[in-house]
Design goal:
Elements (H helix, E strand, L loop, with lengths): L10 E4 L10 E2 L3 E7 L7 E2 L2 E2 H19 L4 E8 L3 E10 H14 L10 H12 L5 E6 L11 H11 L4 E7 L3 H7 L1 H6 L2 E5 L2 H16 L2 E2 L3 E2 L6 E2 L4
Parallel strand pairs: 1-10, 3-6, 3-8, 8-9, 9-10
Antiparallel strand pairs: 2-11, 4-5, 6-7, 12-13
Helix pairs in contact: 1-2, 1-7
Length: 236
């Protein structure tokens, strides 16, 4: 039997180390995915490009959410071509927009430039949620490079003030320690998850966890990745 359940305000997971967990937190019925399509996402990750792996993970996550709740509303934002952020699909119920959403994901390709407008993409995704709670799942292999004068903690605080139920989950591909530290404030402030991944398998597992959190009526699980992959784990 599992030991006592642990409740955390936010979660951190570095693949290969102890992971994260929530118990009994209310879940949102709206989710916006932010997918990095900057040129660095063309870098190889276990035989495929980072973007190809990320797109497959997002498609799988959309399927997970749809199976759990077809009326769950999902949108898609991406950034590429310098510091330009593109709202690719508005937030709408998966029952009506799933196929169009999957087509947008499938058609996404990297562009010439490698900038990462993390702050602006979060603001645009939050605008789509219209202050009505919700989750943002951000997948990126970089830190903010478009406006380095902006403080990530202040941005996260502003997002939370505008939408007190908003949670931001950050799935970070191959970031170094300094980059992780710079980005950690976003999920920490919003009560979301920070997951640092180094392999395609870890990325898929991390995305599935985020999707399950979005699809369930409550969060009643804890997670760990002892043994090299993600487990359900609730114990001391």
């Amino acid at each position: 039997m599992f030991g006592p359940m642990r409740q955390l305000a936010y979660g951190i997971c570095l693949m290969g180390l102890a992971c994260f967990g929530w118990v009994g937190a209310a879940v949102a019925e709206r989710t916006v995915f932010i997918l990095d399509a900057s040129s660095s996402m063309e870098t190889e990750l276990n035989g495929e490009t980072r973007l190809i792996v990320a797109k497959a993970a997002v498609r799988s996550a959309i399927g997970t959410i749809h199976r759990g709740s077809p009326e769950h509303e999902v949108g898609l934002v991406s950034f590429y071509d310098g510091c330009w952020v593109h709202p690719m699909a508005p937030v709408a119920p998966l029952a009506s927009n799933r196929h169009a959403l999957l087509q947008h994901v499938a058609g996404l390709a990297t562009r010439e430039y490698g900038h990462t407008p993390i702050a602006r993409s979060l603001e645009i995704a939050a605008e789509q949620l219209e202050g009505k709670g919700g989750s943002i799942i951000l997948v990126s292999d970089g830190e903010e490079t478009c406006d380095k004068t902006r403080d990530m903690c202040e941005i996260a605080q502003d997002l939370r003030r505008q939408n007190v139920e908003l949670k931001v989950h950050f799935i970070a591909l191959t970031l170094n320690d300094a980059q992780r530290e710079a980005m950690l404030c976003i999920p920490k402030t919003t009560g979301g998850t920070f997951v640092a991944v180094e392999t395609s398998a870890d990325l898929k597992d991390a995305m599935q966890i985020a999707a399950e959190m979005a699809a369930q009526s409550s969060w009643d699980r804890c997670y760990d990745n002892r043994g090299g992959f993600l487990h359900r784990w609730c114990g001391e």
